[in-house]
Specification:
Layout: H1 2-8, E1 44-46, E2 62-67, H2 79-88, E3 90-95, H3 102-112, E4 118-122, H4 128-133, H5 141-144, H6 150-156, E5 173-176, E6 182-187, H7 188-194, H8 202-214, E7 226-228, H9 238-243, E8 258-259, E9 265-266, H10 272-286, H11 301-306, E10 311-317, H12 323-326, E11 336-338, E12 357-363, H13 370-380, H14 383-391, E13 398-401, E14 406-409, H15 411-417, E15 437-438, H16 447-452, E16 455-456, E17 458-459, H17 460-465, H18 469-476, H19 494-515, H20 523-537, H21 539-553
Parallel strand pairs: 2-3, 2-4, 7-10, 14-17
Antiparallel strand pairs: 1-3, 4-12, 5-12, 6-10, 6-11, 8-9, 13-14, 15-16
Helix pairs in contact: 19-20
Length: 554
Amino acid sequence: MKKLLNVLTAVLCICALLLTACSGDSGGSSGSSDSGGGSDSSNTSSSDSGGSSNADSNEAPVPLTMFRMATDQDPSTDPILLELQARTNTKLTIITATWDQFVDELNLMMASGEKVDLILTGESGTPWRQWAAEGLLLEMDPYLASGNYPFIQSVCESDSFASYKVNGKSYVLPGVHHGNDWSSYVRQDWLDNLGLPMPTTLDEYYDMLVAFTYEDPDQNGVDDTYGIGAAGLGGGFTPVFAAYGAKKGPNTENLGIDVASDGSVYSNLFTENGKAALKYINMLVRDGLVNPDFATSSPDFKDQWIYTGKTGAIYQAANDVSPDLLANIPGGTASFTAMEPVTTAGYDVAVMSGPTSWLVFGATSQCENPEKALEFMDFVNSKEGRDLLIGGVKGRHYTEISEDGVFDRIVENWEEDYPGGDTRTPFWIAFFSTVYGYIPAKDYPTFEEAMAHKVIYAGTDELATGFSFQQGVGDGAKWQSSVPNPLHLYQLEEDGQLLQANLAEVLNVNYLRMAMATDADDIDEMWDVFMAEANQVGLQDWLDMYQAGYDGMK
């Protein structure tokens, strides 16, 4: 029982939980960039002709200057951008900066009053709410009343994104994401080797983890495997938190804050749900079913535990378990299957809320033709626009896109126009959308209904690799609810943010202590200490702040 001994003698090390949000890093100057960061040289590219004239208009193309991070493509030569300009009757100029420099660059542009019509930025890192309050961004509501911009109107008027309004008004288009593509994955080949079914309850889940740890699931004759692979108390334990009705995972923001059906704000991380989940996790740790370094696991977690074939139950992005990555795992037969949430008696399963976004887009108050700017953003999110920005130019880059989103990539033409091996267009993301597909907003009365009928795209070349967003988002849908969290991105005032940071520290430290307790009988007392600390820091004040914020959205 060397694993049990390793766990019991592990050094108690307090580390931050995986509560992260996507944002750009500060620093540096403007520069061009490919998807991997690119060079640091300045890059402002403009179309000489704006593409051919719009077939339905004899008017001159309308010039639009936009700021977009990480853009190498020249709108005067890029075939997709030329087609986009032709269809929207625009002439684009793109100002760009690398991912690690765009925050500073955009902040400087907005502060100096540099002329720009459209901007793309992160949800955090730039003070876009302040820009809106100071009149630097265009208020879109007066234009949305016309009904000419169905996608923008659907998103801005939705419950899902009410927290993006500033003083009750719409200044930005949230970069709606197509859905969570993280899921709880289980080694299917290990289940097959052991003759086990996919677990549906926590009891079956425990039995599977025991077998994965102690019954030689990879059949190599060596005692070298663990049931769960985890880095901190985030992703790897998501099935346990979900089973006990506590929303906890790498994509959970604001300490699990959510709104109940009666309109009350709560977080089950501070209730008996959280304690029950921790007791179960503590049992898994004490029984040696978790990689013993989970509390201090490094960023090399995947290489250390997944790709060496040492762990059988993980919570990762779908592309982390794509066939090309799994092919190098010892044995050559590794395969992962997405698991449905498991259940346990007396608790309702609580998976993460959705949908979410991670960028915001908007027009500035300097924009001389706001109608054209909004029309451009809306077109990009239309069926025609998504076909173009994901599939490319029809007849050149693909032949047809089916109703279920599958398109036949014309590989030789694609490689000629976009060499480098990436089969996805550089414009599907961070170009007024973060959706690898189409949300039919104009066909449904609410955005939430439209989101439930989204179509995720997949090129035949992508499908041939064994991984596509269709599969990834399908796997992630098991762990992300279609019910929106109205508090997504709700921003507390400065004192509230400090309070939340202090609460997070209290939770992180105490949660890890309870997970690693050597005696299960100590957890009740440890929980009482944790709650006393949380209450002393201001737990109820924090909940009241969110409650007031939610009530103010109505």
